[in-house]
Structure prediction request, 353 residues.
Amino acid sequence: MVTMSKRISTAFVALAACSLTLTANIGPAQAGAITTTAKTASPATTGLFGEGDPTYDGVFRQSLSILGLIANDVKPNKAAITWLLKQQCANGSFQAYRPDTTKACDVSDPVNYTGPDTNSTALALTALSAANQSASAGSAAAWLAKQQNKDGGWPWFSGSPSDSSSTGLALAAVKALKSSGSGSAIVKAGKYLTSVKLSCASGGGLAFQKPGAANALSTAQAFIGLSNGLIVSRSHSLNANPTCGATTASNAGSYLANAIMKDGALPNSFGAGNDFGSTASAILGFVASATGKQAVTRGTSTLAANASAYGVPDGAASPGALGLLLMVSKATSAKATNFGGLNLITTLQQSQQ
Prediction:
């Protein structure tokens, strides 16, 4: 499915070169080695976290990096915030990456997947709000509000059908901003997500779009929206894994918990192996909703065991992954400076151009 395959490059930070399955086996010593090479940033990348091509994930990975640092009470430097602010379009939206910020943003194009999109905008406004950039966050929120479809869901690009992944990210951003008058949008989004959930008899979970089978990535992103999982605070007492019930949140939570308990992580929705990004998202959702005690324990253990392979694939920092792991470390009261042997904070900071 073209839409789903293309989404990998932006919808969760294009982790590991457009693949959410990372298999590299890199130890802590090797991970630290990436910080010793001097970097020369171009004007378009000064302040950007990570040296990988930002074409498909620049705004997304920068936003997750900022959120991860702030969650751990580490203030991102001015260059990091400035880079993100400069990426904003005149109408408040964000596209995946603007190589020349002196030029106007592209026109949103759902056919060629270019121009402003809801996923980049949702993460950017959440990060800017967390960084106390209220004016820019507010204009992003105003643009995002206009993109909500009549069915209550959000599309990836304007003019496209709604999908559960985009709706989850947009819903999380709306909740994080806590703007007045957002109640109706939140209710409508919840109704859309309910329309794509699968029956408990079939195992639960949400489809990317209706009709469709349960999708781990889409369910995890929807769960973030339902639980307000982008607002990360230290872990409190968690209840047991949710059981599939009448609510969309319990349906999604049960599906995610069962999958994590089975294999330690969520499956890659696009091939073999595990999807650590979606697993991290599910954990954030569980902690935010105070459920999933067993799944959080097992999933966090898996992420820690694969922290270097996931966060520093092939010796190069993956900022989006590191940002997510930082959020998980805070949510689960793990040590960010030694998460599976990896210092998440310095590894991310030293990847900055």
In short: The two ends are 35 Å apart (CA to CA). Residues 32 and 347 are 7 Å apart (CA to CA). The first helix runs from residue 2 to 11. The domain at 2-19+48-349 is CATH 1.50.10.20 (Glycosyltransferase).
